[in-house]
Each structure stands twice: as structure tokens, then as C-alpha cells.
Amino acid sequence: MFTQRRDGRVAALQYLYAWSLNDPKNLAEDLGVFFENMEHPRPHYAYAEEIIQGVILNQVEIDDTIKGLAQNWDFERIAKIDLAILRLAVFEMKFRKDIPPVVSINEAIDLSKQFSNLDSKRFINGILDKFKGQTGRDARKVETA
User: CA 20, CA 23: separation in Å to the nearest integer?
Assistant: First the structure.
């Protein structure tokens, strides 16, 4: 499960990055092509699809959250890869109560180490740490319905 979820986050990040550069005309078709070219069969990436759909569906709210947290930063100047990482993590922290916020933050930092640059790690951690304080959740616990 852990590996599958990690693979899902990586796939979601890759898709969200590409999506931020070129919004497809047909999302379902575009996702089909994307997953055809992945290492594992599409069901392995079920979590990725959940993240991708969730981020796209809630993009305005997620971006507004990031804009509010990124004080002194022009939203348009945030590197697209960093924005994709932030969108993924904010989506998890805001909408996935079964994932403790610290897990989302740690995963986002790991993704930034793998796909972005050293400065990004500090920027992403700062934004998400601020957001963690605003969620009203215990940062280390899963919430049950």
C-alpha cells in the first residue's frame, strides 16, 4: 500500500505538472493516454487518479489557499513543479482526512527533493507548515468520520 500510494503521488505530480502547462480538451481521454505509458497497470494508480480529479475539481479553492499562504510571492511566479507539489499536498490536507497532515507535508518535501531544487524544499515546507496550523486538525492523526 505504501509503495502504491507513493507511486500514486509521483504519477499525480507528473500529470498535474503537465496539466498546468497544457490543459487537455478531454480529461478522461488524456488520463487514459497518460496511464497507458506508466510502468504499472492503471489500477495501480487509483490513488493518483483520485488526487488528479480532486485537485482539478477543487483547483480554484486550492489555489486560493496557496495564494493566501504564499505572502510576498507572486502566485504566477511559483515554479510549475512546485505549484503541482503544493496543489497535491493542499488537496490531501484539506480533503483527505484519512491522511495525517504531517504525512502530506513529508511526502511533498520528498517530491520536491526528487523533482525540484533545494530552495523549493524550504518554500514548500514553509507554505504547508503554515497551512497545517490552519487546518484545525491534529497534524499527526487520521480523522474518522
Answer: 6
Nearest in space to 44 (alpha carbons), one of 1, 96, 83, 106: 1
Distance of alpha carbon 130 from the chain centroid: 16
Q: Residue 23 in contact with residue 31, Cβ under 8 Å?
A: no
Cα gap 3→145, rounded to integer Å: 26
* Mean pLDDT on 41-65: 96
**Half-sphere exposure of residue 82: CA atoms within 13 angstroms, side-chain side:** 21
Q: Which three cell numbers stand for residue 38?
A: 506508466
Read off the pTM: 0.94
Which domains, ranges and CATH numbers included, belong to the chain? 2-134 (1.10.940.10)
Q: Which three cell numbers stand for residue 8?
A: 500514486
Q: Grid coordinates representing 1?
A: 500500500
pLDDT at 136 over 70: yes
Sequence-separated (6 or more) residues with CB below 8 Å from residue 6? 107
The span from the CA of 60 to the CA of 99, in Å, is: 22
